[in-house]
Amino acid sequence: MAISTTDIGNKTFYAKWTDDIAPVIGMLRYSYEPASLWHWLIGKDSLTITVPVTEEGSGADGITYTITPEGGTAKTETAAIENGEAEITVSADFKGTVSIVCTDKEGNVSAGVTVGAGLDAPGVIIEDNAPDIVIKADRTPLRQ
After folding, report:
1. HEC states along the chain?
2. By the 8 A CB rule, do 103 and 110 touch?
3. What's the CA gap between 38 and 36, in Å, rounded?
4. Predicted pLDDT of residue 125
5. Model's pTM, two decimal places?
6. Given this model, what pLDDT does residue 123 score?
7. In terms of Cα–Cα distance, which of 110, 98, 48 is closest to 74?
């Protein structure tokens, strides 16, 4: 087979790469060490959760998280990823769950993560309300 003059010279070749690897959400970090009581993650002040994300393919701009108050309506929001981390703040006076996923630019979705799951807690309680305690001393004592 002979090589013609059209086969010689500068050529441009194209390669197509497909990202089929989902992002990975790492171990969540909390702005303070919340207590774990009765299998709930409990805090007094608003809680900031740092979400580390590893994405080695097409890249990811943010995470999507859903805050579901107990007995309430779920609210889905996004948080930007900066330097491989995103931050979520759960405000005070909250009881419920927070679930997180990350989708990269090719549409690959990470495994979902629930806040507190790594601490064996099914949800989060954040409140700074002292309980009302009432002692009634208006009872007639028993006579013997």
Report:
1. CCCCHHHCCCCCCCCCCCCCCCCEECCCEECCCCEEECCEEEECCCEEEEEEEECCCCCCCEEEEEEEECCCCCEEEEEECECCEEEEEECCCEEEEEEEEEECCCCCECCCEECCHHHCCCCEEECCCCCCCCCCCCCCCCCC
2. yes
3. 7
4. 80
5. 0.74
6. 79
7. 98
Euclidean distance between CA atoms 106 and 117, whole angstroms: 28
Per the structure block, which two tokens stand in for 131?
């309980």
Specify the CATH number for 24-126; select among 2.60.40.790, 3.40.50.11030, 2.60.40.10, 2.160.20.10: 2.60.40.10
Question: What residue segments make up the domains of the chain, in order of their start?
Answer: 24-126
Query: What does the alpha-carbon distance between residue 65 and residue 28 come to, in Å, rounded to a whole number?
Result: 13
Average pLDDT per run of 10 along the chain, which is 144 residues long? 64 76 93 69 82 93 94 95 95 88 94 81 73 68 64
